[in-house]
Automatic annotation (TrEMBL), chain A:
Keyword terms of this UniProt record: FAD, Flavoprotein
Pfam families assigned to the protein according to its UniProt record, in alphabetical order: CO_deh_flav_C (PF03450), FAD_binding_5 (PF00941)
Protein's recorded name: Xanthine dehydrogenase family protein subunit M
Lineage: Bacteria, Pseudomonadati, Bacteroidota, Cytophagia, Cytophagales
Species for this entry: Dyadobacter psychrotolerans
Gene Ontology molecular function: FAD binding; oxidoreductase activity
SUPFAM superfamilies the UniProt entry points to: CO dehydrogenase flavoprotein C-terminal domain-like, FAD-binding/transporter-associated domain-like
Positions of the FAD-binding PCMH-type domain: 1-223
PROSITE patterns (UniProt xref): FAD_PCMH
Source taxon at top rank: Bacteria
Automatic annotation (TrEMBL), chain B:
Signal peptide boundaries: none
Domain of life assignment: Bacteria
The name this protein goes by in its record: 2Fe-2S iron-sulfur cluster binding domain-containing protein
GO molecular function: 2 iron, 2 sulfur cluster binding; metal ion binding; oxidoreductase activity, acting on the aldehyde or oxo group of donors
Pfam families, alphabetized: Fer2, Fer2_2
Keywords: 2Fe-2S, Iron, Iron-sulfur, Metal-binding, Oxidoreductase
Keyword field contains Metal-binding: yes
Ranges where the 2Fe-2S ferredoxin-type domain occurs: 19-95
From TrEMBL, chain C:
Name by which UniProt lists this protein: Xanthine dehydrogenase family protein molybdopterin-binding subunit
Domain called Aldehyde oxidase/xanthine dehydrogenase a/b hammerhead: residue spans: 21-135
UniProt GO molecular function: iron ion binding; oxidoreductase activity
Organism name: Dyadobacter psychrotolerans
Pfam families: Ald_Xan_dh_C, MoCoBD_1, MoCoBD_2
Domain of life according to the entry: Bacteria
Amino acid sequence: MNNFSYIKANDLPTAFGHVRLGDAAKYIAGGTNLIDLMKYNLTKASSLVDINHLVGNHDIEELPDGGLRLGAFVRNAATAYHPLVEERYPLLSRAILAGASAQIRNMATNGGNLLQRTRCYYFYDANTPCNKREPGSGCSAILGYNRIMAILGTSESCIAVFPSDMCVALAALDAVVNISGEDGERSLAFADFHRLPGDTPELDNNLKPGEIITSIDIPQKGFARNYSYLKLRDRNSYAFALVSVATGLELENGLIKDARIALGGVAHKPWRVKEAEDFLKEKEPSAENFAQAAEIILFGAKVFEYNSFKVELAKRAIVRNCMMALNPESQLPGAQPSA
Amino acid sequence: MLNYQSTYSPVLTKDFDTRPVTININGKPTTLQLMPWVSLLDALREYADLTGTKKGCDHGQCGACTVICDGDRILSCLTLAVMKEGSEITTIEGVAENGQLHPLQKAFIEYDAFQCGYCTPGQICSAIGMLKEGKAKTRADVKELMSGNLCRCGANTNIIDAIMEVKNQDSHE
Amino acid sequence: MSTRPAIGQPISRLEGHMKVTGAAKYAGEYNVPGLLYGYVINSTITKGKIISFNTEAAKALPGVIEIFTHENRPSLAWFDLSYADMDAPPGSPFRPLYNAEVSSNGQPIGLVVAETFELARYAATLMEIQYEEESFRVDLKENLAEAHTPSIGMATMLKPPPPKPKGDFEEAFANSYAQVSAEYFHGTEHHNPMELFATTTIYEGDGKLTIYDKTQGTINSQLYVGNIFGLHFKDVRVISPYVGGAFGSGLRPQYQLFLSVMAALELKRPVRVTLDRSQMFTFGHRPQTVQYTRFGTDEYGKIIAMNHKAIGETSKNEDYTENVVNWANMLYASKNTLMQYELVDLDVFSPLDMRAPGGSTGSHAIESTMDELSYKLKIDPMQLRLINYSEKDDSLGRPYSSKELRQCYLQGAERFGWAERNPEPRSMRRGNKLIGYGMATGIWEANHLPARAEAIIDSEGKLQVSSAVTDIGTGMMTIMAQIAADELGLPVEDVAISYGDSKMPFAPIQGGSFTTSTIGSAIKAAGKALRKKLFKKAKDMDSSIFSSMDIEDVAFRDGKISVKDSPALSVSFKEIVAANKGKAIKTINFSVPKFFKLKKYSRAAHSAVFVEVEVDEQLGVINVTRAVTAVAAGRIINPKTARSQILGGMVWSVSKALREETITDYRLGKYMNQNLGEYHIPVHADIHDMDVIFVEEKDENVNELGTKGVGEIGLVGMPPAIANAVYHATGKRINQFPIHFDSLL
C-alpha cells in the first residue's frame, strides 16, 4: 500500500475536481473493498477523495411513483433494516443480509456494493497473469483452479465472477442506478450497469472515470409477498456465493403473473434471462415449471475443469428458491436452504 | 506458466506528512500524528498503544479487529484513521465501566468462551454491537450475526452460550 | 474446613480477566520506544535462484533503515545443526536468507526495516527482484512413483516407523470373508492461528536480547537464537506470556524470529517482525497425504487381515514424518498386518505438525474403512468395533496402561441415541434433508517428557510456581495452579503461576497432548520436594510440635502443616517462612518419565464419536447438527477447560471434514487462497449441538497424575464419523477431505 493524499469532499463539484486532477485519484466511501485492494497493492491511488460527507444521498426516500430511492451513502445494514425496505422489498433485505458480515455491512455503502471487484484468486495474486488486473497478460483461471469461477457470459479473456449479493436482488427488482459526473446526471438500468468481460475484463461496469453513484431507485413492484434469496457457499456464512438466487413472484388466482429470477456467483454480473421469466407467466408455480425456467436460464452455460457442478447446482437452486418464494417464512438466517 | 513478471508499478509516494487526527477513544479525545495510510486498527495498536484490538488478517476476513464506532460494530482494519476524525470509538479496553466487567466479559469467563484469547476482544465488541442492533431473536440468528468473528480454537459453542446468557438476561429486564 | 481438592474442579481460566479486557499482550504488542518495524519479502517463484535485488528506490525512502537479503546479511552459524530445533525432522533445516536459492513459493528472501509498519510494507513493494526460475513439482498425486522410505532421526523418537508386518497379509486378505479396499486423500492444510506470527526483539546491549516471540517453546526459540547467532544462552531471554493459538505452528521457530533477531543485532535497536495473513501460508502445514487400506474379516466380522499404506508429502530438505499407519493395529487386533509409510519430496516448505498430526490423517482411512466393512457385513458400525475390541495393543503385544474405550462407546451411544439409527442408507429424513448417523473411534498417544518446575513458598505463605512452558490457549496456567494447589494443600487463589519465559525452569515444546502430563509431573516433583523442605524447616523451628514426627505423620492443608490425627496441631507456611528469617523456601525439581516402567505399556487416550448430519437432498448442503464425543483420557484436571479442548477438536473436525483446504495451483507451484476469506474455517453458523463426555478412567501406570492429555483426541475420531454419517445419509462415500457439498449432487 502506498501513501496518498487524503481529501474530504463536501460537495460533488469538489469531488469531481479532485479526481479529475489525476487519474490515480480515487473516491473512497465505505472503503471495505478499496482498502483491502490497496493493502494488496492491487489498486493504487495518489489521493483518496472521501465522499462520505457529500451533501445528500444519505437517506432512503419514497419516490412519487411508489418506488424507493436508496441513497448511495446509506450503509448496507441500514438499508437492509430500513422499515420501508423490510416491508416492501424484503428480497433486497434478505440478499444484503446474506453478504459479508454484520461489521462489513455496517461500513459498506450501497454505492460501493455495486463497485466491488471480483474475488477471483488469480485477480488477487499480483504475481499471476490476469487480464482484469493487467489487460493483455492472460487469464490464469481458465486452465487453473476454477471452482469458484463463472459459467455464464464468460469470454476467452476472463471467467471471473461478480461477488455481490445485494446486486442480485437489485437486478431482480429492475433497479435503476443514478450517476453524477461533471457532464451532469444520468441513469442506467441495473442490467446495463455491470458489464460482461468480453475482451475488456478490466472494466467491471459502465461507470465513466470520475463519475459517482448517487442513488439507486427501485420501482414500486417489490414482490413482498412471494420472494426468497438462497445462497450456496462453502460455509454457512461469511463466504462468497458459489451460486445464489433471488426470486420474486407475483401470483394471481394461483398462477404466476410476474416472475423475476436472478443468479449470483455464476457470471461477471447478476444473471437474468427474460425468456425464462416470460415462460413462467400464466403458469402454475410448480417445481416442474421452475425446473423448465432453470433450463432456460442455464442454457449456453460453459463449464471449466473444476466448476461443472455449478450448472446442476444452479438449476436445483432455482427450483428450490422459487418454491421457497411460495413460502417466504421458510427462509433461514444466512440465506441457507430451507428445512 | 513460468517466467511471468508482474508489471506492477507502485505509485511513488512523495508526501510523508503527518497530520493530527483527533478521535474520541474510550471516552477520551485522543490526538495522534498520522499519515493518511494508517488504518484505524494500526492507529489504535501502534500509535495509541491500545493493543487489545487484534489484527488477525488485516483484510476484513476474521473480525478480530472489531471495535464500536459511533455505536456500530465495524472492522477497524478496513477503515482509515483519518476517516474517523471526530468519531467515538470504543475498544475492548473501554468496555468495562468503573472497573466493573461488562456482562459479556463476565459471561465469556464463566462459559470458557475463549482459549487463546486472540479473537476474544473482537467477539466481545461484536456481541455488544449485535445485542444493541436488536435483530437477533433466536440462537440461529445470533450465530449468523456473529459469523463475522472467526475463532480458530473452536470455542464457538461456548461463545454463543455466553452471548445467549447475556441476551436472555437483557430480555428479562 | 479443609481445602477441597482443586484437581477435578471446573475452575474458570485464571488469565480470563486479562483476555476479556484486552490487557493480555501477545508477542507483537510490546510497543517499546524506538521500535522498528520489519516487513518480510517473500519469493514469488517456486524454485530457482535470485539473480539480483534492486533496493535503490526502497532505500531512498526517508524512514527506511535497512534492507536485509542474503547478500548483506551478517555472517551466521555455518552448520545445519545449529538451525535444528526440538521438532526438527531428519534433514537440513531451512535457513532464512542463507543464499540465492529459492526452494518454495513464498520463501522469505528479504526484510525491510523501517520506522513505521506502513513504510516497511510500502518499501517492500518497491524492491525489484530478478529470478532465474527452474521447473518444480508440488503435486503429490502426480509424483507417487517417487515415494521413498523416510530417513530416521531425533524426531523419529516420538514418531516411530510403521510396525513390522505380521503373518501373511496378502494370503489372509485373499481368503477373507468380507473385504474392503479404498483410497483416501486430503490436501494441504494450514494451521492459521488467529494471532499472526510475530517477534519483538529488544536489543539490551552487550549482546543481550529480550525477545517476545510467538512460539510453543520459549526454550526452543532461545536455543535456536543462541546457536545461530553465537550468543550465550543466558543472554537470550525469550518471553511468550500469551500465545494466540498455534496448533503446532509454533513447535518450530518460525522465520520472523530469525529475521527480527538478526535485524535487532545488526541495528542495535528493537525490531518487530509480524507476518501478514498470506505469509502465514509460507511455512509449515499439514502435508497432503494419500492413503490406501485393505481390511479383510472373517464371517463374524473379526478382522484377520489389515493393510494400511500412506504416502505423505515432504520438502526436499527434510523428511517430515507422521504416525499415520501405526494406529489401526493398536485399535483392532489382526493376525496379518502390513503397514507402510512413504514420503514424496516436493518443492514445498517442510510440513509441520498440525493438531493431531498423523492420527487425524490415519483415522480418516481406518475408521472409514471400518464403516464400509460394517455395511458389507451388515453389522452395526459400533458393534463391529466391539467385535474387534482389543484389550491390548496388538501392534506391539503390550497391555494398555488403561483403556476405557468400551465405556466411551456405550456412554456415547446412549447419550447420542445411536439405537434409533436405521441401518439403511438414505432411510432417515427430515423435510428436504436426509439425516445420517455416523460414528468412529479415536486414539492418541499419551506421552510425557522430562521437565523442570520451581516451587516457592513466599513470606505470605503463598505458593509460586514457575516453568518456561507456554500457554497456547489450552489453559496451562489454570491446571498448573490446580495441580500445585493440591500438592501443597492450598486453595488455588493462594497459588501464583509464572510461565512463558525461557529464564524459568526447563520445559519442552508445548504440544502432542503431552504438556499436562509433562509439566504436571514436574510440578508434582517440585511440590513433593517442597513439602519435604517445609517439613524439615518446621521441624527445625524452636520447640517444634513435629520434632519427633516423620513427614508421613503430617498433612499439608489450608496453608499449614498439621498433624494428621489432630489437625488442630499445626504450623502455617507463613510461620515456617518467618522462622526461616523471612526467606522464601524454594525447590527446583526435574521430573523424568519412568521410561523403563513405561516401556511395559502402550499408553493412549481413546474416544468414541457419534455424529448426526443433515444433508439437503437436492442441494447437497451438509450440516453437522449433533455430535457427541466420549473421551477416556485418564484423569481430567479441569473439566471446564478440558471440555473446551475437546470441543475445539470437534470444531476442527467439522473444519477438516467439510471446510478447510489450502488450494494449490500445481502449475504455478503455489497456494491460491492465502487468506481467511477463502481458506474457510468454520463460522459460528456452522457449529451446532456438541456434547462431551469424560469417561471415568483410572490410570496408575501412565504417570503420577494419571493424565493422558486432551489436546488432540477431539480431532481424531470425528472427521471420519462425519464422512460415515454423510454416507449413511446419502449412500455416497466421499473419501476426500474436505467433502465439498457439491460432490453430493
